[in-house]
Amino acid sequence: MADASREPAGGFGERVLELVAEIPPGRVLTYGDVAALLGSRGARAVGTVMARSGHLVPWWRVLRAGGHPPSGHEDRALAHYRDEGTPVLPAATDATYRVDLARARWRPGREP
Questions:
Q1: At what angle do helices 43-53 and 9-22 cross, to 10 degrees?
Q2: Does a structural domain hold residue 28?
Q3: What's the predicted TM-score (pTM) here?
Q4: Residues in the chain, pLDDT under 50
Q5: Residue 53 falls inside a structural domain
Q6: Backbone phi, then psi, for 64, in 5-degree steps?
C-alpha cells in the first residue's frame, strides 16, 4: 500500500476511519498499529486524522504507545473501556491506568 505522505489526505483519512470503525468492542489498536495495517509508518498521520475526525468512529479504541488513552480524554475513554470490558492496568501516569495491550490488542483476521 502507498505511504500516507504520498496519498491524498482524504484517501488515507478515509482508510483510517474505516479501519477504526471495524475494531470490535473491548479491543484496541495503537496509532502505530493502525498505520502499519494500512501499509504506512505514519502513526502521527493517524493521530491527525483521529484528532480531526475521530468523533465519527469509536475513538477510544485507538491508543498511544504503551496502551495509554488519548491525551485529554482519559476519563471519557475509561468509561468506554469499562462499558466494553476492555482490560486496564494501573499505571503511574496522570490517567492512573493504561489498557492491557497484551490482552486487548486487536489482531484482524486472527480472531473469530
A1: 80
A2: yes
A3: 0.87
A4: 1-8
A5: yes
A6: -75, 165
Residue entry with cell 484496541: 28
Query: Could you tell me the residue range of the domain that residue 83 belongs to?
Result: 4-102
pLDDT digits (tens, 9 = 90+) for 15-42: 999 999 999 999 999 999 999 999 999 9
**Distance between CA 80 and CA 58 in Å, rounded?**
9
The cell for 22 is 471495524
Q: Which pLDDT value is given to residue 2? A: 42
- Helix residue spans in the chain (DSSP H): 9-22, 31-37, 43-53, 74-84, 101-104
Q: What is the CATH number of the domain that holds 37?
A: 1.10.10.10
Cell of 86: 476492555
Radius of gyration of the chain (CA): 13
